[in-house]
Specification:
Length: 511
Amino acid sequence: MLVNLSRRLMILTLGLTVTYQASQAETTITPSDNYEDNYFGEGLDIDGDFILSGASLDSTNGDNAGAVYSFERIGTNWVEQEKFVGSDTNSGDYFGCSVKKDGDFAIVGASGKDNSTGAAYIFMRNSTGSWIEVEKMEGENSLDGFGCDVAISGNYAIVGAFGVNSTSSSTTMNWNGAVYVYEKKTPFFWKKIAVLKPTATDATAKFGASVDIDGNNIVVGACGEYYLKGAVYIYEIKNDSVDLVNKFYGDLNSSSSIYSRFGSDVEIDGDVVLASSASEEIVAVFEKKTKIKKVIVGDSEMQFLDVNWETKTILTPNSSANDFGKSIAISGDNIFIASNSNGHFFKKVGTNWVEQLLPINANLPNTYSSFGRNVAIDGDHAISNVLNVFFYPTYSDSEIRVYHKGAYFFTKPTNDENTPKVFSLSQNYPNPFNPSTKIDYELEISNLENSSITIFNILGEKVKEFTLNKEKGSVVWDGKDSFGNLVSSGNYFYRLTSGDYSHTKKMTFLK
């Protein structure tokens, strides 16, 4: 048991009463086969009812060859479905050191492949539920570490290679780094469209040691840049080009030390980017701001979108927590942050991010155990790995712990009929789409009178609005505006609004 089930807590923050029920982990996941010393949970992701867990030291295909386990949530149980490896996985590959899933596609890093040149593999889930390899990407030189971190979203995948342009001597090892961007042309062909490199010439930038992507937006950590203060880069994919939009340095906190290592971990979800500085034990939150600018050219007025990311806040734990920010995750209005022995949940309340009063106590079984090297969150569930759960002179075991939002996530006050207690907006499916797409949502609110899903074009003009008359359901958009006219191809935004709460996502309509 992680915390006392009978303990019920209430805090008052920024004038808003927030309650939650403390509880133990919903379940603990371990692989069915012999998993001694395999670093189970080293790469980790959750997407809907599926969890993928890397085991980079698995020795099924040779010492430290690696493997990935797939679990599916059936009812209230997480059931192991499959264990898979790359088509050429062998000793020392560390296959599964990084793992990300999006829909029916997953990407797996193998940073040790061919003397740490590295590789990354794209897998597709077929009609029978099995993961089949559809593409392989490779690094260019030994010690590149290609695949050290990976991410995938829609038609794009990215691969970090923090060792690109690395140099070594008898006393030092320097890494510069790069990030490779791929676009899905067919399920079996992912085209490289860009190679991103740091703007600075720091020999120890470690650019690409942490990466993430959501839609057309990419975030890259370079924790060694700026004399080890670190930096974070945010890019936008436009057609076949990838443009740098913003760069932030590791001096956001006035007390930051020279070794803050900002960008140790990065995450992006919609219009929010997270970046941690584990050395400083802070997590920065950036939010995307889009403005319409007008330019007069001759007798004509032209409009264009000005996109910028701004620092929203700096998150710190309510109480002392060693290595706060060692791993971070975000899903909608929920953030999960790991420290050495605790998990910390933050909830967006209005325009503020608020931490629950009591963090998860990892209740580690021995001094060798390590909580939160990797965490992930999606929908109702958050997960964390725990290494060295059992430690013996010759081997150790690891596990994944699953937490349900009913136990640890914030619930909103029940005495205001205009405040939703549940507020969830799913990514539309299919996306991109033609001729129609479905948008799922869920609300728990006493008064649905002011609840709607509204579609906007890139200029912020309202295209169509759906009034919601039930708490859980979906709307289907057929690509037509309120007057029945078919809209043009391009990107659109849809926003779920209920009272003072709103959440926006992007979709693409193709003709």
